[in-house]
Amino acid sequence: MPVEALPKVTIVWPTEVDWQDKPIKVIYLAGPFRADTQWKIIQNVRRAEEASLKLWKIGYIVICPHTMTQNFQGECPDYVWLDGCIELLKRCDAIFLMRNYKQSIGSLEELKVAQELGLAIIYEEPPNLPPHPMDS
What we know:
Number of strands: 4
Largest sheet: 4 strands, parallel
Oligomer: single chain
Shape: globular
């Protein structure tokens, strides 16, 4: 099933989910959230929302921490959100790494945990591509 790409972005989307024991898998979306301006945070959340919707449309149940905590900044110490997201990740079957995940210390930690847990790892783009110009 083809999935439309975002404008000016090459996205490699899984088009077929081949899971052996369960028909629906829960996937954790990882990518940058923090930024130096509120506008950039909003843009990070928007990109996560778009990726999340595409994953829902191809059959995943998506945990998108960007949308869950976007308005909670300053309400609790950062470790509350970070530890909570790691706990959510532990309950998932797979992790989806957005194309700019390497810019996020949190996403890199989430990838490490996913690897330790043996979760399926799905990349928005193959990991060896050069950074996209919108990611600077």
